[in-house]
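Lab meeting prep.
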Amino acid sequence: MTHRAIEIIRGEHAALSAMLRSIVLLLAQHRHNGTLPDFTVLRAMLFYVDEFPEKRHHRKESELLFPKLRARTPQHRDLLDRLDLDHARGEARIRELEHALLAFEMMGESRRSAFEETATRYVDFYLGHMSLEEREILPLAERSLTAADWKDLDDAFVANRDPLTGATPEAEYAMLFTRIVNLVPAPVGLGPAAA
């Protein structure tokens, strides 16, 4: 049986993965073309990452899902602690990335590499984190949680969904989503081998 909370987590992970990969592709495209990226686009994308996944998605996992799993599967406490630590470190990492973007925007080309390296580290960190949750935590939850646990989780996750997954967003998130979609250029090839 598939639970709404699991579907929502996977959908939010997919939306965030797409956003993160888009940042990397956008940077690669501009590096290849020898142009500076549109900093407004990058700021909007990083604001989304900070605003929804860091502040809402992680909180739902750390405050709702992980405590239920700790109660039902105490032998997995170390893994859950590691993921909670990732969530806590995520805020510092996004601040570091936002600062590197500001430095790139203000100081120019001399800060491009530092920003790109920071962005790549952040994206790799986040994709690895989500992969671990999907590979280990979600199957563990499906095996271990009770019907009452799932009712609580499903209700909480349905009430607080990411607009990039197609959920009807709150008005302010609808505006953010629309702005990002309108700002991000359509992907183009990076050379003759690109399809």
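Slide two material, second protein:
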Amino acid sequence: MKTLKDHIILYDAECPMCKLYTSALTKTGMLASNGRASYQDMPEAACAYVDRQRAVNEIALVNTKTGEVKYGIHSLFEVISNSLPVFKGLFLFKPFIWLMSKVYAFISYNRRVIIPTDINNENDIQPAFKLKYRVAYLLFTWAMVGFILTSYAKLLTGFIPAGNSYREYLICGGQIIFQGIIVSIYAPAKRWDYLGNMMTISFAGALLLAPMLLVAHFVNIVPIIYPLYFMAIAGLMFLEHIRRAKLLHLGWMLTISWVIYCIIVLLLILNFK
């Protein structure tokens, strides 16, 4: 595989995803072994050329000979097309570039709520906040969680009343509104960070339910397993909510209100039995 020499890619040291894929670029030989560095410890050779704030938002690829800098999806395209020329035509196709730029921005501007860090770390450079990408993330996770929970609810019909096809979407959407009101009163400056983290927890929980849905499709198991598994996942979500609330320095208020909302919803569902 052809190596892109005399280039350094700058990644976010606080982002496990960034570390993983840039490490893969060097390990596969797409970049030289010294072809990656964190923007938190930006090499002096790159400092003069890089827009520091933009490098925080979009991963930067620096040509150490010419000083040319490419950002975001264009930096990744440069590395990949050098090693795999077959993709060059695709990477010049404007509709594809536009689509992948949006996907990249969607992930990049939400990466700190997907995998959080301590926001009080003074040495940490935070990516810019883009409301439209945070709202898009909330809508995406809401839709995915609602879809998975709607399917899983069918496995619980012997234990809780069956609902209509919109019930789980309403429950998930209601939680966003309920917790959004609480955090807006309690800590308005952290509203969007909290909601992003909360929906990441919900999305992760829904993804953990997916394997049981797959098992249920092929194997008949004792029905009590389904609610027990659901409660185990809910317990993990509770612990993760506590952890993330601590990282956001929000104390216990949001965790308590999160639990209260879940109890209210359960009581309402059981009341319709």
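Talking points for slide two:
DSSP finds twelve helices and four strands in the chain.
The longest strand covers residues 7-11.
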